[in-house]
Amino acid sequence: MLEHAPRRTVGSFKICLKSSLYACDYLGLSRHAIEHTKAYLSAFEDELTQAKDSVALIAAMKARYPGLGMEVALDIGAKVATGEMKWG
Fold first, then answer.
1. CA distance 53 to 7
2. What's this model's pTM, rounded to 2 decimal places?
3. I need a surface site. Which of 56, 57, 63, 78 has the fewest CB within 10 A?
């Protein structure tokens, strides 16, 4: 499981956004982008608890976010999150 690490990361973005808006703008971060990322990671965690393997997880995420792209990232992320592939 992800042990809620993505939520802490997104929280850091929010702190950045509140305290140093100019720095986030420089990095290309907007409120919408941060909220979308938070929702996506939350959905990923939810689907991960129900998925039997990376194929099921990928299918569930594509159903929730059709046409999002970044399929290579989703493929690798799903395999790492389900333990089918080691990272690092």
1. 22
2. 0.69
3. 63
Number of alpha carbons in the 13 Å side-chain half-sphere of residue 61: 28
Looking at residue 82, what DSSP letter applies? T
Helix (H) or strand (E) holding 4: none
- Joined together, the tokens standing for residue 17 give 């956004």
Question: What pLDDT digit, counting tens, does each position of 60-86 carry?
Answer: 999 999 998 889 999 999 999 999 999
Contact 7, 41 (CB under 8 A): yes
Given a cut of 60, whether residue 22 has pLDDT beyond it is no
Based on C-alpha coordinates, what's the Rg of the chain? Answer: 14
Residues 6 or more apart whose CB falls under 8 angstroms from that of 36 comprise none
At 80 the pLDDT is 93
